[in-house]
Specification:
8 helices; 183 residues; single chain; mainly alpha
Length: 183
């Protein structure tokens, strides 16, 4: 039973039912959205491509400074993954009307959306960190610690700014207009 498994987790005891519903809805959006899937596959794939220049027999650059490349690739990962948070309601479409008629606050909505964003970013950072470690190795402990503390600082600082931008500058993402620009 999936619901019982969610209730058994430690974090769900601290979340209100409204926030839990928003988290569940956001995870379902990510699971069925092709753009979101592409966004999750992009950073590890690009890190594999970038690191191919520094790894193996046919490497273009024989020696790489992991003290610079590791933090740079992690910052790139955050840059790619934090962008959708600045338009948090893009995929809602007409469903955003539900938020105005439901007995919930935008604080609850953004809490759920931020939990999903932070979870996806944390997972991607771990995957990209593992790929980088496999391909080029780990940087020194101080650089590794500074990188991950910097990532935490950046994400916790950017999510409130993204929430503000989503409320003050909403943009509806229209898939028809995206298809029209391809031709």
């Amino acid at each position: 039973n999936l619901e019982a498994a969610h209730e058994a987790t430690g974090l769900s005891r601290f979340l209100s039912p409204i926030v839990k519903a928003v988290v569940r809805k956001e995870f379902l959006y990510v699971a069925r959205n092709g753009f979101a899937f592409f966004l999750l596959v992009l950073p590890p794939t690009q890190i594999l491509i970038f690191s191919a220049q520094f790894h193996g027999r046919n490497a273009i650059f024989k020696r790489v400074n992991t003290e610079i490349l590791f933090p740079a690739m992690m910052a790139y990962t955050i840059l790619v993954l934090i962008a959708p948070a600045y338009n948090a309601f893009a995929y809602e479409g007409r469903g955003i009307q539900t938020y105005f008629t439901s007995p919930l606050t935008f604080a609850d909505i953004f809490t759920g959306k931020n939990i999903v964003s932070a979870t996806l970013i944390a997972g991607e950072v771990l995957i990209c960190g593992a790929v980088l470690t496999w391909r080029i190795g780990l940087p020194s402990t101080p650089t590794l610690l500074a990188t991950f503390l910097g990532l935490i600082f950046i994400v916790t600082g950017q999510l409130p700014v993204a929430n503000w931008a989503s409320l003050n500058f909403p943009r509806k993402l229209e898939f028809v207009s995206l298809a029209a620009h391809r031709t």
